[in-house]
Amino acid sequence: MTTGAVTGRRGRPGHSLESLLDVAVAAFIERGYEATSMDELAARLGITKSAIYHHVPSKGELLRLALDRALDALSAVTEEPGATTGPAIDRLEHVVRGSVRVLTAELPSVTLLLRVRGNSAVERAALARRRAFDRFVTDLVRAAAEEGDVRPDVDPAVTGRLLFGTVNSLTEWYRPDGGLSADALADALVTTAFSGLRAAPR
């Protein structure tokens, strides 16, 4: 996670930057970023606003750091060897599996990211990074079609949106304590998306 200079700051015992971000993300999801005040965050943490400002200079910085949790992890997936070498269809599957892994590990931050609408400079920067990820996926779909592994009669951008629309929908129902591991979830998604729902002929 990219946190910049603020990572070296320390607050009162029991309230690290990480725990502060956890509380902030939960509040932003529950109430919305604009409706969540620093006073409310301080109350949830049981500290003063000045203790929060010891970690970050503004609420906007909290939002940036929270979104970077998800975006940095997704960007890292696109830089892994499995996403950069080999047949495009295998690279695409690697990115899908990695994205599911990110979603399960950073569920609150990914949920928050998917609710960003570009209402501030921080949100617009996050959306720009999301678009870069979408272009990466589209390029993989296009390459896989050119290699003969993905049907060419569907626009690669549409295929990418449908595929990652499915991945993103996991935020609506996936629960870490539900007994389904990240690997099992990725296996199910890849099987249905890449092989289809229809069973093999008997």
UniProtKB/TrEMBL annotation:
SUPFAM superfamilies: Homeodomain-like, Tetracyclin repressor-like, C-terminal domain. Keywords: DNA-binding, Transcription, Transcription regulation. One of its GO terms (molecular function) is transcription cis-regulatory region binding. InterPro entries: Homeodomain-like_sf, HTH-type_TetR-like_transc_reg, HTH_TetR, KstR2_TetR_C, Tet_transcr_reg_TetR-rel_C_sf. It comes from the Bacteria. Residues 37-56 bind DNA. The keyword Cell membrane does not apply. This is TetR/AcrR family transcriptional regulator. Residues 14-74 form the HTH tetR-type domain.
